[in-house]
Amino acid sequence: MTGKSLLILGIETSCDETSAAVVADGKRILSNIVSSQVDWHRKFGGVVPEIASRKHLELINLVVSEALTQAGVALGDLTAIAVTRGPGLVGALLIGMAEAKALSYVTGLPLIGVNHLEGHIFANFLEHPDLKPPFVSLVVSGGHTSLVHVGDYGNYDVLGETLDDAAGEAFDKIAKFLGLGYPGGPIIDELARKGKPEAIDFPRAMLKTKGYDFSLSGLKTAVLNYVARAKDEGRGVNLPDLVASFQAAIVDVQVHKTLRAAEEKGVDKIVLAGGVAANTALREKLRGAMGKKMALFYPSIVLCTDNAAMIACAGHFRYLKGERLSLEANPDPNLSLGSP
User: Fold this and answer.
1) What is the pTM of this model?
2) 239 or 141, which is more confident
3) Superfamily grouping for domain 133-299
4) How deeply is 188 buried, as exposed, middle or buried, from its count of CB atoms within 10 A (0-12, 13-18, 19+)?
């Protein structure tokens, strides 16, 4: 069945999804099993690291076994094992790496470490097999907001990052403050469609700065202050207008800086990656602003969120470059993009 295909088993446990996948030749998904813990964390309004680690420990063997079964392969058919080394929650990362190292040890298969953010970028290669570097990628998720110039496979120049809250984190915090539920991103995205994004003039932090960094803590404070003033003045708050205006303030800065980075780097492709890449306002605003000279790429919803197929895809390209991870390597919760 597999012929001469390179089969990579990917393992992802950086946060609250336990995932394993088998990918053939870097771009063909044979299986992609994701066990989400969102129902466990919803009651707390966010991810509880200790709970996440315990659930990973309970599920990891089952998820890996199911990924192999669904792909119709055995451990002996695999070419290598790729695992998320960081960034992420250290306890969660430990579970995935322990599983990957154990499998590598007993099978003799090469072990490959993958950066979680790199995985999000590479999810686009699974969805768009003809996509090739160079391009500019906006990586936006619950824990990260980064603008990256991808010059080649594995060649990253981080142009800017968030100085405080990540985009997904800001969505979650405002959704929690407003009592909308968790996770906040999809809830706000849907509710915002019923509101007017121009209703409230929230600040666009760092919009006109020369660099490519982002800041969202001030915007978050502006939302809290707006609600507090409305309460003090006895005014009601139009929730759809509020969240639509809040979302627009985030999107406007991200779109502006992404387009400026693409123009500066002379690329004609923009790639969205990460959980917030599923945000419809971000996709529509970027598509409308970039014109016909540039092409926009983003994954389907299931590949926007954390999954092991993206890790296997990135691992495939690292395997081809001859990269290997020692069995004595440790997870790095603060691993930077481009680190060995």
Assistant:
1) 0.93
2) 239
3) ATPase, nucleotide binding domain (3.30.420.40)
4) buried
